[in-house]
Amino acid sequence: MKGAKREKLLEDADQRFREIAASIDKGLIVRPDIPLLSALLKRFMYEGFIRSIHDADKNFIADGRCTSCGTCAAVCPVKNIEMIAEKPVWKHHCELCCACIHFCPVEAIQYGQKTKKRGRYHHPSLTIADMKAQRGE
Fold first, then answer.
1. Is the dihedral of CA 49, 44, 32, 19 positive or negative?
2. Which domain holds residue 121?
3. Is residue 112 in some structural domain?
4. CA–CA separation, 71 vs 83, rounded Å?
5. Is 89 a domain residue?
6. What is the pLDDT of residues 67-111, one digit of tens each?
7. Which of 9, 46, 59, 130 is a plausible cystine mate for 112, CB 3.0–4.6 Å?
8. How does pLDDT run across 108-125, given as a tens digit for each residue?
């Protein structure tokens, strides 16, 4: 997808993200159509889910194409990847954002067998420098 159609899609997505962000108040999504008790239950269930995804990084691997460039570690927003012996090692506090997969310049980062033949993508205006800045670097 290229040109005006792609730009419109990205603009619409950015607007929706702004709307969602504006609706979040201290970790609870404030919606008048959901009673507070339901919102609290969803919040606690979500926290349990988050705990389980942190261990999901055990499925990440760097295959033989890895060039030890460190891009995966540089773009990880939670500093979950450390380069050890010139290979990425995940430290089990992953948020499953998959930035490591999508920014790897040689597509060496895989999530098990699921991503081997899949394309990679990140927003065209998002750079490695942006990801580092997000981490306070």
1. negative
2. 57-134
3. yes
4. 10
5. yes
6. 999 999 999 999 999 999 999 999 988 888 999 999 999 999 999
7. 59
8. 999 988 888 899 998 889
Place 44 in a pLDDT band, splitting at 50, 70 and 90: low
Residues in CB range of 74: below 8 A, 6 or more apart: 128, 131, 132
CATH number, domain of 80, equals 3.30.70.20
Query: Between vectors from CA 34 to CA 28 and to CA 35, what angle results, nearest 5°?
Result: 90
Q: Phi then psi for 61, rounded to 5 degrees? A: -140, 155
Taking the C-alpha atoms of residue 103 and residue 106, their distance in angstroms, rounded to an integer, is 9
| Inter-residue contact 97 to 77 (CB < 8 Å) | yes
Q: Three-class SS of residue 26?
A: coil
Whole-number Å distance between alpha carbons of 78 and 73 = 9
